[in-house]
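Dear support,

We are seeing what looks like truncated structure output for some complexes. This example has two components. We would appreciate it if you could run it in full and send us the complete token output so we can diff it against ours.
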Amino acid sequence: MNRRVVVTGLGVVSPNGLGVPAFLEAIRNGVTGIRYVPQYEALKFNCQVAGIPQFEWDILKNYVSEVTFHGLQGQAIAYGLMAAVDAWKDAGHVAAGEEALWDAGCVFGSSVAGVETVKRIFNRVDAGEARKLGSRVVEQFMNSGITAYISGKLGLGNRVIANSAACATGTQAVLMGYEYIHQGLAKRMLVGSSEHVDQYIFGAFDSMRILSRKHNNVPEKASRPMSATAGGFVPGSGAGALVLEDLEYALQRKAKIYAELLGGACNSGGQRKGGSMTAPAAPGVIRCITDALDNARVKPADLDLISGHLTATAADTLEIQNWCLALDRNGRNFPLINSLKSMIGHSLSAAGSIEAVGAVLQIKHQFVHPNINLEDPNGEILKLIDLSRMPVERVDTPINIVAKANFGFGDVNACLIFSKYNQHG
Amino acid sequence: MDRREILEELKRVLEPYTENKELLRNINEQTDLVKDLKINSSNLVDVIIDAEAKYNIEIDFDSSEKMISVGSCIDVISDKINK
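Here is the complete output from our reference environment:
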């Protein structure tokens, strides 16, 4: 079938902006969403800063009925629902009436289900009060809770899937949606991911000693991808959502088109050849990037911008080395590269979709967002690529093709290739 | 507490689970929770849990199965309160 796939709607809940207009303004201007969290100091965490969306819980009343609102407590569900419904509306689509929308599906991922709900279950059950849990906890602890709320709200009737692939979750969700439309299995797919890093998940990462700990008193400086002082990542929360659509379907209804999704790839390094539970194997990463370009029929030389995974750990240098090898480009010839995590931290499963929304916005508005906190670029990275390739100020320049990649625990990789929409393909 | 008072309080217990609040205005003992108030049947569990907390009573499974209409809810609640 080989259908072309375009992006027609966006939604985002980001630590530096709620909704697409605020988020666009923030990434254009390098606005941080990282804040000090007093509770984390009280809990004796090494890292006491986080990317937390300024999300007022009552916003949800615009998205669900009063009865549904009563008893809803999952933050990840709330973020995902807002981003997804916003994207659907942004695309000009409406919710189903009595009949489900059989041509529209959803792939939406997360790392964990509603942690708040799980905690409530533990407390009640352990106290011998299971009978007091009520009817609303199962739907919020199941991994498919977010997709269940989204598909119910909008009446989506095609395949509805909750995926999970650690930090590659969001990118993978976008790719899965792309593949279904590309193969002619759906006309519209609402794709994305959501994450709420609460103190328990945060604590587990803190214990691994991979989080930023030297900038607790200057939170806006704490997330420093590609810098010499990158000392670990800053956990973040949020959600990103994209409406993917069959090009012909979008043209027929005269939809606004943000960008085309040319293709992508998703694989695993198999935890072999340097790959492990926590480290990506170079052969897997390189293959994922080259497969994505092949799938999208894009030559490495045509890539204008890389939206990297780049979390601000020692892995940043390895990532750039892998890009250099995969593209056979380095020094001044390397594409521009940036990391949204410098502004919002690393929102695990949500990272891929929020960054994909960012990538699409950079194509639509023809700019490259700055890498903030890159006053001191890592010397090892400078041996690979030229300083000019890592902009610290916004660059207003023609952006035609962007690669968006993420690499996750378990040695999973995903890479998307977006392009400016051109009617001739 | 008489049946009239329990009914008034029951309205507040049912309120969060009733989408159309107008329907609550004229409830009487014959009002069916699912058919008339359009309460999702899975939420009847929550109504029972909330009623237990409100009246500090325990409603066992057999009693809760009888709670279909406003009148039968009042039967069960007044029975438990007066025990």
